[in-house]
Specification:
Length: 251
Amino acid sequence: MLRFRPLLLALLLAAPLACKPPFNPKIYPSPDKLFPVAMAEYKAHRYDNAAKAFEQLTLDLAARDPRLPLSFYYLAQSQAHQGENLLAAATYNRLIDAFPQDTLVDDALYLSGRAYQKEWRHPELDATYGHNAVTAYESLLASFPDSPYAAPAKKELTTLDEWLAKKDYTTGYLYLKRKAYDSAILYFKDVISQHPNAPTTKQAYLHLLEAYRAIRYTEDARDLCDAMRKAYPNDGDVRDACGPAPATPAT
């Protein structure tokens, strides 16, 4: 009997936990009672409970209650902590749309961009969420250039610019290998025009030149080499592909 006592004791201690009812924000009679509970759940990292509570607060608080934008913000944060990035982005956008003058708007713009960016996990995937992230960051920079989030937003835009360039470049390269030159040319041109500063762009130039030469677009190839020399002066790869720049006629 003695050897079963530790197991019995553990079962007795676990019983109250097993019987604990799920968190229900509707048992609190008013937002005044629920808001501090919601904050306590959030600070305790019980994000599922916090999300339920803040969602209820977004329904119950008056439109001009200063706690309403906070409730949207912490609802989005709770969703993000649970990996629900698209829900979080949508909630940040609800805050932005409902309270465009609130001090949390620049936070919400940056964090919605981050949430969308996390959903676009690899350049080869559909870029819709990447474009959504770009829109959020650019809106932040346009509306709040002095925000503390401006510098990290610029950094993330650089990352996204390279990812978007890489996506189009990869598609163009696949067309090039299949000798679908016209389609390859379109994608490489998009990389060059839309992402001129991305590291991948030089490769897009070089493969665009390859496509032009494959279909004997001699004048286009010559013009492209001129553009490449301007974009990448003294670059060895450009020099190997295009040869030395033509001598400037003496005046």
